[in-house]
Amino acid sequence: MKILVLGGAGYIGSHTVYRLIEQGYKVVVFDNFETGYYEAIHPDAEVYEGDLRNRADIDNVFDEESDIDAVIHFAANSLVGESMVKPLKYYDNNICGTKVLLESMVAHNINRIVFSSTAATYGEPIHTPILENDPTNPTNCYGETKRAMERMFYWTEQAHGMKYVSLRYFNACGAHISGKIGEAHNPESHLIPIILQTANGTRDHISVFGTDYDTPDGTCIRDYIHVTDLAQAHILAVEYLINGGESDIFNLGNGVGFSVKEVIETAKKVTGKEIKVVEENRRAGDPAVLIASSEKAKKVLGWNPQYNELSTIIETAWKWHSTHPNGYKSN
Ligand code: UFG
């Protein structure tokens, strides 16, 4: 079975490529290397450098690799803060890129796609835990473009019969168990990497954004889910579609929330390091609590996350950050 992974040099994409190859799939990676790294790609994957917005680039992959069974689509810009100051960059790359991709897939009769979506499609939740049929009112442009991409799949299915699974992840974190690949954004804005960069001495402190939320310790609560568990969900979604499953949307999280202060305390225990904390004002657009119900993914896809302890998740991330203080070489 051959799978095309778009954005396979990025954080979640590269972990999915490793998992696919570990489970015997043939993998083709397509990436424009704007935010991805060559070193993150498994050596057994076939690699094409190209940009989804250039029809010829993606047509070339389908022409060369005529036996692709399904596409997994991670190729997008994904920083919430950046999307608020550069919204048109997000419309251009995320939406225009996906439009060109779908045109090329239709032309090449490729009719299965698994899509990397986000909890940011929901916006401010109406209850906890969040269910897939809850209202989607994104509060940032990143979430808005992901929601629009989901609707593109919906209408493409109506017209062309292409089947899709959209996976809405909560807070992706952790690293491959080997410590060979991990999380490396530039600039980094996510909580766990910043905490661990403080622990490994790359940063002076971690800023806690807001201590006056309506939560037990006043800091935001999130549902942290290990990247390898996310990777496995993509493989299960591919198998679900290959076995004739209907198009659908699934949340992916552990269903348990941890506050920012709890994450810092756990990281102190795991690393054995002092981690300097500076309390600051709230960051714009952060909901107080985001926790997933993933019952649907467990029931329909048979997903069974293995890394459900926060300390284990942070241990895997620490293995990466403590051995790669500057991320990948080409950082
Ligand atoms: N935080 C800090 N200090 C930091 C970084 C983060 O206190 O230096 C806090 C944030 O305010 C938030 C929590 O830690 O309360 C988690 O923040 P992240 O930036 O790690 O993650 P988000 O919850 O903001 O975003 C994640 C994904 C997005 C996705 C979003 C869905 O990274 O891609 O969930 O709501 F869109």
Helix tally?
10
Helix content: 25-40%
Largest sheet: 7 strands, parallel
Percentage of β-strand residues: 15-25%
Radius of gyration: 19 Å
**Low confidence ranges:** none
Class of secondary structure makeup: alpha/beta
- The dominant shape is globular
The succession of helices and strands, N to C, reads EHEEHEHHEHEEHEEEHEEHEEHH
Small molecules (ligands, ions, cofactors) in the structure: uridine-5'-diphosphate-4-deoxy-4-fluoro-alpha-D-galactose
Mean pLDDT reading: 97
How do the strands of the widest beta sheet line up side by side?
Answer: 3-2-1-4-5-6-11
Tell me the number of strands: 14
N/C terminus separation: 32 Å
Explained architecture:
The structure is a single chain. With 331 residues, this protein is α/β, with parallel strands linked by helices. It has ten helices and 14 strands. It has helices at residues 11-22, 55-64, 80-85, 87-107, 141-160, 191-199, 227-242, 260-271, 295-301, 310-323; strands at 2-6, 26-31, 46-49, 70-73, 112-118, 163-169, 171-173, 206-209, 221-222, 224-226, 248-252, 258-259, 277-280, 289-290. Strand 5 (112-118), helix 5 (141-160) and strand 6 (163-169) form a beta-alpha-beta unit. Helix 1 (11-22) crosses helix 7 (227-242) and helix 2 (55-64) runs parallel beside helix 4 (87-107). The longest helix is centred in the N-terminal third of the chain and has 21 residues, at 87-107. 48% of the residues are buried.
